[in-house]
Amino acid sequence: MDGAIFRAMTDDNQLFAAMAEFATQFNEAASFVLIGDPSTYGADLAEFETFIQQNDAAATVQIIENGSPTAEEITQIANSAPQVITYRGELTGFQDLLNNLANNGWTGVVVYDRAFEAAQTGIVTFHAGIQIVGVEPWVNSLDDPLSMAFKDSYVDRTGQAPDAVAVSAYDVTWALRLLVERHGADAATLTRLLATTDVIRTTQGVIDPAAYGGTDLFRSAVIYELLPLGGTRMLGRYDAGVLVIDEELAASIPTPTLPASATPSVATVTVTSNVLNVRSGPGLNYDRLYQLRGGDQATVVGTVPDFSWYYVQTTRGLGWVMAQYITIFTPDNNLAAIAQVPIPPTPTPAPTSTAATPPDVVIDSVTVSPSRPIVGQPFTASVTVRNAGGMPANNFAVAASWQPGEIFTAERIEQLNPAETVTLALTATLTGSGTATVVVVGDLNNEVAESNEENNNFTINYVADAQTSASSTGSYTAPVTITLGGASPDFDWSGSAFNAQPGSTVQQINTPFENTYVGLLTSGAVTGSSVATTTPGTVIGFRTAEGDCGFFRIDTISGSTANITYRVYPAASCPA
User: Fold this and answer.
1) CATH code assigned to 268-337
2) Is-contact 73 39, C-beta < 8 A?
């Protein structure tokens, strides 16, 4: 065992097994949909399917091999009414999946192994009837004595909430210390003992590598639900591979509900200002961790003796908020019942230089989600702002007028320290389609006296478009009649031309496919009966006899076979 490498956290395979066993135990003969990119997560999806079927032979499983399902695919998933959807993919894809499922009226359980991470980044939107469930080796909502003692100590020393990595580091250090105290510090001896030891009780569970295979120290897993007001709720816990479950909590899994305006059962604060800083301690001299927005709510963990600051838990972690910018609700109307918690040490001010340069507000990046905003639906621009100067930038606004429609949005930043970066969310709903070039302004009204006033702005280009009814690819071998919108044939492919069917029209469009939008498909612009071409990259617009419209691009032509990518809009979205 010389040089052995020990796994200090439960591996993904064990986490998947725990989640599959838990889901099947409380959803007997359930239907599951597993979503993920096969090139990255194919093996994970296959393992999860195997675990489900091992636990419940009556369960039905469908795998969608696409890390970013199209709107049409999500509609089909929602219509199949699965009880549980498991997602393996990137954070932004998870946000899009939740929103599209809600738009289709689906209700059920969404399982995402990175759910807590997604919540901490602020991208999770909670929807009525959709329960978000994740799995971790440990979560800070556990209330067993060891977890509670560790959380209190960790928060007291760091001012932050611990995560599974912090717990693992502590547990392994504690176990090694225990072995050193009993057997000495010889590395070879410690390696042998660590591999053969059994049943050392730690915060996250039992260390028992002798039972796990020699180098796996833990087999712990916590199934948890994300809470809309912040934090997590434990649903079930695996310890040494055995499920120890809270039946009352788990009973809610088959029929999840999320009331829009339920009365909180714990002390809760609601933000009354437009933006509220969450800080590392109860004072303006503590670092800002992140921001809440007007109407946001958070669970109260503690307070200070004069109740001027409250220690709260949100989906992005623990922090302190100022009392004058919130309202507070307590179930028993008794503020004195809120615990007084230790105050973190006052931060030491950074040394200031008499030659410090003035502040310099810079926008490093702007990303739009979804990347192709849908007319009539909210989209969010994540704006990353940095102070490249040597002094704080105070009380300024970041703003943009989104096109089409001149939709103005702005967010204020109270303070941005030198080298500090903050990401703001500007949300808007567009009223028309088209290509857009928008300048995001980093210091609206020039409120900050900067060392460089010429680098505040960031230009972003995007295409706003109507919601599609279909978006996919197809392969057609001539002679063939093609139907993309509705039930009636739209056009045929002869091997050298695309010919409109009766009542339909086609027209070559001299715009790259990714820059096309529904507003280009007016009846006056799409008037032809045939487009003769075999040139890859050609974009063709069409209007159907049933009133639908759309575009398709010739990707490749091999002999008489044309491979195309297409986008179809419902008749209600097509221009006159």
Assistant:
1) 2.30.30.40
2) no
> What is the CATH topology of the domain spanning 1-146+158-260?
Rossmann fold (3.40.50)
φ, ψ (nearest 5 deg) of residue 254: -65, -30
| pLDDT tens digit at each of 576 positions of the chain | 445 688 888 888 788 888 887 777 656 557 889 998 888 878 888 888 888 888 777 888 888 888 888 888 899 999 998 989 999 888 888 888 998 999 999 998 999 988 888 887 777 888 888 999 999 888 877 766 677 777 767 766 776 678 888 888 888 887 787 778 777 778 888 788 777 765 577 888 778 777 776 678 888 888 888 877 667 788 888 876 677 654 333 333 333 333 333 444 478 888 887 678 888 889 888 888 888 877 888 888 888 887 889 998 876 778 899 988 888 888 777 777 787 877 888 776 655 544 578 999 999 899 999 989 999 999 999 999 999 999 999 888 899 999 988 888 988 888 899 989 999 999 999 989 999 999 999 988 888 888 888 888 899 999 999 999 999 999 999 999 999 977 889 999 999 999 999 999 999 999 999 999 999 999 999 999 999 998 999 999 999 999 999 999 999 999 999 999 999 999 999 999
- For 83, the token pair is 């009880």
Residue tagged 């009133």 (tokens) = 547
The domain spans of the chain are 1-146+158-260, 268-337, 361-464, 470-573
Instruction: Give the global pTM.
Output: 0.45
- 361-464: CATH architecture: Sandwich (2.60)
Cβ neighbours for 462, distance < 8 A, ≥ 6 positions apart? 368, 371, 372, 373, 435, 436, 438
Q: Residues 6 or more apart from 337 whose CB is under 8 A from it? A: 267, 330
Q: Which amino acid is at 419?
A: A
